Amino acid sequence: MKGRAQSGDIVLTAPEVDKLRQLGERAFLYIVTFCKSEQPRLRIIQDPIPQLEAEDLFRAVQYVVGEESWQAKGEEVAIQ
User: Fold this and answer.
1) CA 71, CA 25: separation in Å to the nearest integer?
2) How many domains does the chain fold into?
3) Which end of the chain has the least Cβ crowding within 10 Å, N or C?
4) Is residue 53 packed enough to be buried (19+ CB in 10 Å), middle (13-18) or exposed (0-12)?
């Protein structure tokens, strides 16, 4: 799960990416945006690694996934 106060890029660590790759179709990435607002948003992406365009940061210790990449994937769910 990744959370953002607003919206924007998310950062995945190398262990997170490794685990998501290992789990494949059993993996789900949950991205919560606008966490501090009255109406946060949840996006759920199944098997995210083959779907997302991630850029290596800090010699592949972390990866940045641009908002335009994750925003177009998965399903957004209303949080009650």
Assistant:
1) 19
2) 1
3) C
4) exposed
> Tens digits of per-residue pLDDT, 25-76?
999 999 999 999 999 999 999 999 999 988 777 665 677 889 989 998 988 8
DSSP single-letter state for residue 67: H
51 lies in which domain range? Answer: 2-78
What CA–CA distance (Å, rounded) separates 36 from 70? 20
CB atoms within 10 A of CB 54: 19
Q: What span, in angstroms and rounded, lies between the C-alpha atoms of 65 and 57?
A: 10
Tokens 């950062």 found at: 11
Please state whether beta strands 2-3 and 28-33 pair in parallel, antiparallel, or not at all (unpaired).
parallel
User: pLDDT-derived band of residue 78, with 50, 70 and 90 as boundaries?
Assistant: confident
